[in-house]
Amino acid sequence: xxxxxxxxxxxxxxxxLLSAExxxxxxxxxxWEEASTWAxxxxxxxxxxxxxxxxxxVSTGNGYSCSNLxxxxxxxxxxxxxxxxxxxxxxxNGDIVNSGIIRNEGRNGLVLNIKGDITNNGTWTFRRTELxxxxxxxxxxxxxxxxxxxxxxxxxxxxxxxxxxxAFTSWFDLNKCAFDLKNYPLTLKGESANISNGIVYNVxx
Length: 205
Prior knowledge:
This protein is mainly beta. The chain has one helix at 2-18; strands spanning 22-24, 30-31, 49-52, 55-58, 64-66, 69-71, 76-79, 88-92, 96-98, 101-103, 110-114, 118-120, 123-125, 128-131, 137-141, 150-153, 160-162, 166-168, 171-173, 178-180, 186-188, 194-196, 199-201.
C-alpha cells in the first residue's frame, strides 16, 4: 500500500514540480502586471520563479504572488503610488534572495508576505515584511547589511531562525512565535528597533 502511494505521488506530483516556470524581468523593467515587463512576455503566476533584473513596480494590491523571488544586483522592486492607494502586497510562496534593492515609494508602501526563507545581500527598506510560513523560516543577511523594514509574523506555524548575524532598524512583532538566533550577534539600530510579543533565545548581544 505504501509502495503504491509513493508511486502515485511520483507519477502525479514530480511533473508538477519540474514544470515550475522561471519568469525574468527585462533590464528596463516595468509594472508587475504588464507582460512587456518580462522577457518571456508572460505575467508571473503563483507557481512562477521570478527573477528581477530591472526596476519592477508592484501596483496590484493583493492580486499577485509567485513562488521563489530573486532580485539581482541590477534589479529594484518597489510599490506603485496613486491617490488613496493602499499598501501593495506581493505574496512570495517560496524563498526570496535579494542582491539588489527592495524599497518604498510614496506615502503607502510595499508589503512582502513571505512563506519561505529570506536572504538579504542588498537594500531592504520598505514598509513591512510579513512571515507566514507553514514550517521554520530562516533569515540571513550579508555582512554590513540591515533589514530596514518592519517585520510581522502573521500565521507562521513554525519558528523564525537566524542563518547569520541579524541587524535591523525597525520593530519585529513575533506574534507569539519563537525566534532562535542560533548564537549569532543581534544588532538593534535606532530608537524604533525592538523585538516584541514572542520568545527570543540563543541570543548573542
